[in-house]
Write a structure and sequence with these properties.
Blueprint: H1 6-14, E1 21-24, E2 27-30, E3 35-38, E4 40-44, E5 47-52, E6 63-66, E7 71-74, E8 76-78, H2 90-98, E9 102-107, H3 110-129, E10 134-140, H4 158-164, E11 170-177, H5 178-182, H6 186-197, E12 202-205, H7 211-219, E13 222-225, H8 231-239, E14 243-247, H9 255-258, H10 260-263, E15 272-275, H11 281-287, H12 290-299, H13 304-310, H14 313-318, E16 336-339, E17 347-352, E18 355-359, E19 362-363, E20 392-393, E21 398-406, E22 414-424, E23 427-428, E24 436-442, E25 452-458, E26 466-469, E27 478-482, H15 485-498, E28 501-506, E29 509-515, H16 527-543, H17 551-555, E30 566-569, E31 572-575, E32 580-581
Parallel strand pairs: 1-6, 2-7, 8-9, 9-10, 10-11, 11-12, 12-13, 13-14, 14-15, 21-25
Antiparallel strand pairs: 1-4, 2-3, 4-5, 7-16, 16-17, 17-18, 18-19, 20-23, 21-22, 22-23, 24-25, 24-27, 26-27, 26-28, 28-29, 30-31, 31-32
Helix pairs in contact: 11-16, 12-13
């Protein structure tokens, strides 16, 4: 990220150096005061020089941008984003969201990290610097996030924190999962203590947290949280001194619930921001990005200026980056949106780092992805999978099995249900009548020999075939759900040979395949092409019988152990409460 000298900023803001560009004639939405009034904006280089009457900043070469009859707001900030979950590279994701006014995101780039290490993180940050979207990076509190610890390509701990917390591009500690604080994990506590010494904010992750958990996290210095499932939980976090990020993602729809903290419970909005966490590109192109969240908040009863604050200054302040972004004030990055009105909040033009980057829902330049290094091209080291290698060992003709059960009402949550399932040739078999399917995780890094584990799952509804993905936080091992073991083996082997992607297989044939060659988790596809590919994959999964809101949206999160009650990792089925691997075959009475 470019940081000009203090002298140059002072020269620009005093008018010693004339502005490169002036946006004239608009009504400025001042998120610092909550006012709206006529004001022009003078831009020098990538920063704002002045607002108000800026005639003294105009020179003979200054470009004048006419904003008569329009409103000016800061660029929008996504307060918590796993951009890799879009399956787009940094360049292509920036192209997708900048057109809707998102000019900054806060991200741990944790999915790049577990695959490509610190070299991958540096490469992604350099890529962002060449895009219309800034990344404010938080060093992940640790990797892997899982309990017990699963297999990833790169592990991140206190030693890496000692290095990266000194980076100019490090703005805090990313997504500190509550269980690691409650367990007094020594490595995590060392990372947090280091952050305190370095005066870096700590970002939290505490879904469905009770009072004692919230108190403990606040005492540990967790500054904000994005994982509230109810408005009451969100209010408890605010009362305990945390800031709140309201999440509205492609699968987790919590805006209307959590905004009640402001509209019904009367909490002050200035410590509330927005995030999307994980987004499907098709949803972004259909509905917008953070601009959609602003409109949703207004529709729920939030005053327009407050909703705009929540998407800009509030987020910047909770992350302590408000000296760089979040307001149209001198010295900040010249991220300026020209909108129709605060009430309807339709983004018409987008300036990022002082330059016009989007107009009327389209970016002005065709995005060009950089050349990829070896860090982003790791080989998959999965042992070849056969039909017979998929299964859970058991004796007899039938057996009681703990089946992971998708909760269709609460996104991501997986319960457990016991089912009696048939046993053939010493292996538990799927039972389509009970919607008991196979689920496998194949370790991709070769650290355990590329082995595969099998469990059983309910809720996907497949009547045949298989779906699989190598993009699967938090480990990005290959996750596969299927009704047919031969199709599952084909799906996993295909992804390993192709260097990653998402696939639908049925009857021994590839029905749909989306290559993800960059680290095996993203692609340099234009957003429109990615959206079309997503739609084809979901349609193919529905043709197999899946009735979940998003087959791949639910599939890819099965490996996350920080979500109740069960996860499936390369170690097996993990119990969220006990944080250990469980034997899913129940003993006979």
């Amino acid at each position: 990220m470019n940081h000009p000298s203090l002298r140059s900023l002072i020269d620009a803001s005093e008018g010693v150096v004339k502005a490169d560009r002036i946006i004239r004639g608009g009504q400025l939405v001042n998120v610092c005061t909550g006012e709206i009034y006529p004001a022009d904006v003078a831009i020098t280089g990538e920063r704002i020089a002045a607002t108000g009457d800026v005639s003294v900043y105009e020179g003979p070469d200054t470009e004048i941008v006419d904003a008569t009859g329009k409103y000016l707001t800061p660029g929008l900030i996504d307060g918590h984003l796993h951009l890799e979950c879009s399956k787009l590279s940094v360049t292509m994701f920036a192209d997708a969201v900048a057109r809707y006014g998102t000019t900054s995101v806060v991200s741990g780039l944790d999915q790049f990290l577990v695959v490509a290490g610190l070299d991958g993180v540096r490469e992604a940050l350099r890529e962002a610097d060449a895009s219309p979207m800034k990344i404010f990076w938080g060093a992940p509190f640790k990797t892997p996030y899982t309990l017990p610890e699963t297999t990833v390509g790169f592990s991140f701990g206190p030693e890496e924190h000692a290095e990266t917390q000194e980076w100019a591009d490090c703005f805090g500690v990313w997504e500190t999962v509550a269980e690691f604080v409650l367990n007094r994990d020594e490595k995590v506590l060392r990372a947090l203590e280091l952050a305190h010494r370095n005066r870096l904010p700590i970002f939290g992750c505490a879904p469905m947290a009770g009072a004692t958990t919230i108190n403990a996290l606040s005492a540990a210095g967790v500054r904000l949280d994005h994982e509230s499932y109810t408005a009451e939980e969100a209010l408890e976090k605010l009362r305990a001194g945390m800031s709140l990020l309201i999440r509205e993602s492609s699968v987790a729809h919590f805006m209307n619930e959590n905004v009640r903290t402001v509209t019904e419970f009367g909490a002050q909005s200035r410590r509330v921001g927005f995030c999307t966490d994980d987004m499907h590109v098709a949803d972004i192109l259909r509905e917008g990005h953070l601009d959609k969240l602003v409109r949703m908040a207004i529709a729920a009863g939030v005053r327009p200026v407050e909703a705009i604050q929540m998407a800009t200054l509030n987020c910047a302040e909770m992350y302590r980056i408000d000296h760089l972004v979040g307001s149209l004030t001198p010295g900040r990055y010249a991220d300026v949106l020209i909108i129709d009105s605060p009430e309807s909040f339709q983004v018409e033009r987008v300036f990022a780092r002082g330059k016009l980057v989007a107009r009327d829902g389209r970016t002005v330049e065709v995005p060009q992805a950089p050349e990829r290094s070896a860090a982003f091209s790791p080989a998959f080291q999965v042992a070849p999978l056969t039909e017979d290698s998929i299964g859970v060992a058991a004796e007899g003709d039938e057996v009681r099995v703990l089946v992971v059960e998708m909760d269709r009402t609460v996104p991501f949550v997986r319960e457990g249900v016991e089912m009696t399932l048939p046993v053939r040739d010493g292996t538990v078999r799927a039972d389509l009548d009970q919607d008991a399917l196979y689920v496998t995780v194949s370790e991709r890094y070769g650290k355990t020999g590329g082995s595969t584990v099998t469990a059983m799952i309910n809720g996907f509804g497949l009547r045949s075939g298989a779906i699989a993905s190598s993009a699967a936080p938090d480990d990005n091992n290959i996750i596969c759900v299927g009704a047919d073991r031969a199709d599952m083996a084909l799906a996993v082997n295909h992804l390993a040979r192709q260097g990653g992607g998402q696939v639908v297989v049925d009857g021994g044939e590839i029905q749909e395949f989306l290559p993800l060659p960059v680290a095996g988790i993203v692609a340099d596809l234009p957003p429109e092409e990615m959206a079309e590919a997503e739609d084809r994959l979901e349609a193919a999964a529905r043709a197999l019988g899946c009735e979940l809101p998003s087959a791949f949206g639910y599939l890819i999160f099965l490996e996350i152990t920080a979500i109740p009650e069960y996860a499936v990792t390369d170690l097996g089925v993990v119990n969220y409460r006990t944080q250990d691997v469980v034997d899913i075959v129940r003993p006979s009475n």
